[in-house]
């Protein structure tokens, strides 16, 4: 079956993103074919498109970007029993800048009642990464967690998951985003010069664990604040992680936490306690514009594309 997509045939600026058409095979064992209603734009989409990741994750070109979606199931492959055609689902997949996409049924969940497609598409990547990071940090009730980049897509969910575990949370954000972080229930401070002192002021008893979602050269300060690189984890800074003896969690492997993450966001939504901001919803044809906006930074939430 043919589908309209946005693809790039060479690495480069957002201008390499162009409309195209590709084949979507019939779903294989454990797979489903989805009519995509919304897909989220993630920083990794930009790193892959620019070629910045080409040495670690070489792509077969042309490549259709996109890692998360919300939509309705059109067809199911052999062995898929819990999802049926017509069901509205959200989750992780590949090549989601498309009208139709294939996904593993195990990386999908039913969209909870009252959540629309753009809201649902803003959650899977960030929720999986946030959940995995807190698991790998071993965050427990009563501990104090510092999150660098607490107002971002991943940070916003990490704050909520950590508070739900009974941790105390301090989040760093730009000045305009401090109220977003405090509205979530965390203490907040601006990032930049003097950060370690400000954090000590907010947590005189010390910080137990630190999660870096910013990738902004914060690991040295983080090791100093916890006194132990084993209490720090980054999702965004693999090179500095090696230099500081800090764990980098790349995702995409056997440690995948999609099922737990989707269950958790659904439960928070059902209790009316879930927040994930959306900066903008754009037609899929404006994917290049979306990438330029993400590259410019300082967004108030995720950008969602709708085919
Ligand atoms: N390893 C994995 O499995 C995995 C999974 C998902 C995402 N990631 C990575 O995690 C990172 C965050 O993803 P995201 O979707 O949350 O991106 P995002 O929504 O752009 O969030 C990044 C946040 O960091 C803030 N920030 C910028 N400079 C900072 C600094 N010096 N200190 C503290 N915060 C700072 C930004 O604030 P302002 O814009 O206001 O400056 C923004 O709120 C990306 O690098 C992404 O590739 C990794």
Verbal overview:
The chain is α/β, with parallel strands linked by helices and 307 residues long. It has helices spanning 43-50, 117-121, 124-137, 153-164, 178-184, 195-202, 219-226, 238-244, 258-270, 287-296; strands at residues 2-7, 18-23, 31-41, 68-76, 88-92, 100-104, 108-110, 144-148, 168-173, 187-190, 209-212, 232-234, 247-248, 278-283, 302-306. The protein folds into 2 domains: 2-123 and 276-306, Medium-chain alcohol dehydrogenases, catalytic domain (Quinone Oxidoreductase, Chain A, domain 1, Alpha-Beta Complex); 126-248, 3-Layer(aba) Sandwich (Rossmann fold), CATH 3.40.50.720. It has 10 helices and 15 strands. The strands form 3 sheets. Strands 3, 4, 5, 6, 7, 14 and 15 form a 7-stranded mixed β-sheet that branches. Strands 10-9-8-11-12-13 form a 6-stranded parallel β-sheet, with helices on both faces. It has a two-stranded antiparallel sheet with strand order 1-2. The longest helix has 14 residues, at 124-137. The two termini are 16 Å apart. NADP nicotinamide-adenine-dinucleotide phosphate binds next to α1, α3 and α4. NADP nicotinamide-adenine-dinucleotide phosphate binds at residues 42-44, 125-126, 129, 148-149, 151-155, 172, 174, 177, 191, 213-216, 218, 235-236, 249-251, 297-298.
């Amino acid at each position: 079956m043919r589908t309209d997509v946005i693809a790039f045939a060479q690495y480069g600026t957002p201008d390499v993103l162009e409309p195209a058409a590709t084949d979507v095979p019939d779903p294989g064992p454990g797979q489903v074919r989805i009519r995509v209603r919304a897909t989220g734009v993630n920083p990794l989409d930009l790193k892959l498109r620019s070629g910045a990741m080409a040495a670690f994750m070489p792509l077969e070109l042309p490549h259709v970007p996109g890692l998360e979606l919300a939509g309705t199931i059109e067809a199911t492959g052999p062995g898929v029993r819990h999802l049926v055609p017509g069901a509205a689902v959200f989750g992780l997949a590949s090549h989601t800048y498309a009208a139709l996409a294939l996904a593993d049924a195990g990386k999908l969940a039913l969209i909870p009642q009252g959540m629309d497609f753009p809201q649902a598409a803003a959650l899977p990547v960030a929720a999986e990464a946030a959940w995995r990071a807190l698991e790998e940090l071993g965050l427990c009730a009563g501990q104090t967690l510092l999150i660098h980049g607490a107002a971002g897509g991943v940070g916003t969910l990490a704050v909520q998951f950590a508070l739900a575990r009974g941790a105390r949370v301090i989040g760093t954000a730009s000045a305009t985003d401090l109220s977003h972080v405090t509205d979530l229930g965390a203490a907040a401070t601006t990032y930049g010069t003097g950060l370690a002192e400000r954090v000590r002021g907010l947590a005189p008893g010390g910080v137990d664990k630190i999660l870096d979602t910013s990738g902004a050269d914060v690991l040295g300060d983080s090791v100093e604040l916890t006194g132990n690189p084993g209490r720090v984890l980054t999702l965004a800074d693999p090179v500095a992680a090696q230099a500081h003896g800090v764990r980098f969690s790349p995702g995409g492997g056997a440690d995948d936490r999609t099922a737990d993450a989707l269950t958790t966001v659904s439960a928070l939504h059902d209790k009316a306690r879930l927040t994930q901001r959306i900066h903008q919803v754009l037609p899929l044809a404006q994917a290049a514009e979306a990438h330029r906006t993400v590259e410019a930074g300082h967004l108030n939430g995720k950008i969602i594309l709708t085919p």
